[in-house]
Amino acid sequence: MNKESRKDKPKIFISYANDDSGRAKDIAKELKKYNLETWLDEENISAGQNWRSEIENAIESCDFALVLISSKAFSSEWVKKEWTSLCEEKWKRPNINIIPIKLEDSKTPPFLCQYQSYNLKGSESYYSLINDLLTKTKKSGFNYNKKDLIDNEFDLEVDRLEERIRNIKKLLKEKKEYQKESKDDQT
Question: CA-CA distance, 25 to 132, in Å (whole number)?
Fold first, then answer.
């Protein structure tokens, strides 16, 4: 796909095991806040459609593929087929961006070992993932409305600050609990 035929928004395919659908939906929801188009089978395949061909078409037309890695994904035969399709698509279209996302401690599939992965083990913060995706989409030549970019960057900064505030509150709570325990130990 050349730059002239590019859409305003990149298409982001999310590969995941059914048991990880909650995390996949959370990631998609966050990405949509920043005007990024996501493709999830649960949201994009209607009753009566051939789900195998729809998934294959989504892989063939995506600009980015987020691969959610977990033990459940490794045990899913369909996810393994998606990974094989993604590997083949990368061979045909080297410009497709494949981004592994580790949801837990598990091995990385061989074809993903060459890519830096995101670690979302136990973390609900998508700030760095979204920031990186926005940067990569800009570099890939997608046309964004300048106002949308400014709004997205502002929203990202607000999200980062809110996350920092949550972490500070957590640390303050832990400190208060520690001080209380120390005071109780002294009496």
Answer: 19
How many other C-beta atoms are found inside a 10 Å radius of the C-beta of residue 177? 10
| CA–CA separation, 124 and 118 (whole Å) | 12
- Written as six digits, the tokens of 75 are 């045990």
Residue appearing with tokens 């806040």? 33
Rounded distance between C-alpha atoms, residue 71 and residue 106, angstroms: 6
> In this structure, how many other beta carbons lie within 10 angstroms of the beta carbon of residue 53?
10
Contact yes or no for 6/144 (Cβ under 8 A): no
Written as six digits, the tokens of 56 are 């294959």
pLDDT tens, position by position, 83-132:
888 888 888 988 888 888 888 887 777 777 877 777 777 655 666 777 77
Q: Domain segments of the chain: what residues? A: 3-144, 145-187
The DSSP bridge pattern shows strands 11-15 and 118-119 to be: unpaired
Domain 3-144's class?
alpha beta
Which residue type is seen at 21? S
Nearest to 14 by CA among 118, 95, 91: 118
β-pairing, 11-15 vs 97-102, is: unpaired
